[in-house]
Fold:
Amino acid sequence: MKLFKLEAHYSYICVFRRSNRHRRNLHHIYTKSYEFDCRQLDEKEFKKVYVVRDYASVYKDAKTLDDFRDSSKGKFRLVDTPIRKYKGKLYRPVMYSHGSAVSTLFMDTKDVVENEIEWQIRSKVSDVNAETQRLFKSEVDIETLGSVYVTNTMLKAREAAQKVVNQFVFFDNVWWVETDPPVYNYNTFGLGHNHGGTGFFIAYVDINSLDKYARKFYFTPKQREKAIKTVIKVAADRGDTNDVKRFQYIPENIIICK
Structure:
């Protein structure tokens, strides 16, 4: 593992004392550029553990919204998504996408920073800044402070931003982001008897984080046979005969790599 610097922007607030001109504490928001530590991994430490094979609308060389709106570039087909593991956490490649449609291109560094990392940083840092604003709005007596300046959230905001950057790694000239494990999932729609139906899907969910009721709808890759038997029984009990036939030929959608 090698560390390298990745420049990204984050915001923080400074709090100033109230004065004769300003009867409330002043909160100024500043945006700052900073070089965060980012990890570059190699093949030995970043092993491929799964290949998720699922259908998606795939757009050739699509980057922008206009590219995804061009129906001539799109095709509904099977897509193989590799899942790799590093220190107990799973990662998937960062692709250009729009809704459920995906591109054939991996997202470049500039767009990863602007569209993925900084977008998440804004969300995380806003929680830190908002907490400080609430604290000093209700502060009983800050008039005893000898300076106009009260505090700032620069270090806390920077720590929150670094945690976001830590969710991303760089490997084989591709950006990868943390993901939940791929699992099999079934769900039902409508009233049954082929009005609506029973669906069988691939999802990215940490089953251990679900409650007891929700867990029954999800199965790990090693529970594939159990998942198929369960969804066939559910469809049969509901009278979804069309789905029962369809589920007899489910391919191996989550391939376990050895």
Q: What stands out?
A: The two ends are 22 Å apart (CA to CA). Confidence is low (pLDDT under 50) at residues 138-146.
